[in-house]
Structure formats: structure tokens, C-alpha cells
Amino acid sequence: MRDYRRIILIALIAFAAAIAGVVVGREFVVPEPPVENQLHELLHEQLNLDKDQHGRIDLIEQRFAVRRRALELELRADNARLAEAIQAEHGYGPKVAVAIDRSHQAMGQLQKETLEHIFAMRGVLRPDQAVKFDRAVVGALTANDR
Q1: Residue of 95, 94, 71 lying closest to 81 (CA atoms)
Q2: Sorted alphabetically, which InterPro entries does this protein's record hold (predicted)?
Q3: Any long-range contacts for 103-108 (C-beta under 8 Å, 24+ apart)?
Q4: What are the pLDDT tens digits along the chain (146 aa)?
Q5: Spatial distance between the Cα atoms of 26 and 55, rounded to a whole number of angstroms
């Protein structure tokens, strides 16, 4: 009977420790949300956009979502070609170099179009809103520097 109580006590302590670990992990170890989420939250929840601004930004976001998906698929295909080149050459050969360069072009294009998207949304904002938006963009781009 005494061993039974000891086992239950140990199980309860282990359960409490597990719950405490989850709480600590969720409250203190959760990574920052991605930049896109931060900007989206700022735009739709903190800048007090009017109805016209919401509509224009929604249209900009819809157009970019399609283009972004296409570029992400292109990057995925580039990664597959890189994997094939690595498998064929088993080292850093000419096929691997070409595949890397192609992948970098797609990554650069995604970055350029993302910035164009950000500037298009900024163009919808009033000057007071744009100041806050600019601060958030710069903060997001330098987040690792803090």
C-alpha cells in the first residue's frame, strides 16, 4: 500500500513538472512571429485603417499571395535541381554551381517582390500611419541585431 502511494505521488509530481515546463516554454521561449505576421497585425489592428485602405491593402495582399506562391514553388524546384546536381557530382562541381546560382536568383526575386509589396502597402497609408509602418519594417529587418 505504501509503495502505491509513493508511485502516485511521483506520478503527480512528474505531471506537475510537465505542465510547468509547457507553461514556461509557451510564455518565455516562444519565437517571435514572422515579419509578415508582425506587419499584417500592425496594418490590420494597430494603424486604424479606414474602409478604403482596408480594401486596397487586401487587394495588394491577394495579388502578392499568388506571386509569392509561384516564387516559392520555383524555389522548391530549384532545391530539387540542386539535390539532383549534388547526387550526380558528389561534390561542388559545375552542375551544383549552376543550381546554386539559379536558386539565388529566385531568392533574390522573392526578396525584391516582397519589398515591392511592402512599398505598395505603404503607399496606401496616411503619413502618420506610414511613420509607424516604417518603424515596424526597419525593426523587423534588424530584429537579429537586438
Answers
A1: 95
A2: Metal_resist
A3: 103/75, 103/78, 103/79, 106/71, 106/74, 106/75, 106/78, 107/75
A4: 667 777 887 877 877 777 877 777 666 665 555 555 667 777 777 888 899 998 999 999 899 999 999 999 998 999 899 899 989 998 888 998 998 888 888 889 988 998 899 899 999 999 998 998 888 888 777 765 44
A5: 35
Using a 10 angstrom Cβ sphere, with 0-12 exposed, 13-18 middle and 19 or more buried, the burial of residue 52 is: exposed
Instruction: Give pTM, 2 decimals.
Output: 0.65
Residues in the chain: 146
The separation between CA 126 and the C-alpha centre of its own chain, rounded to angstroms, equals: 26
Of 50, 46, 40, 66, give the one whose Cα is nearest residue 121.
40
Report the Cα 86 to chain-centroid distance in Å: 28
Alpha-carbon distance of 88 to 68, in angstroms, equals 30
CB 133 within 8 A of CB 112: no
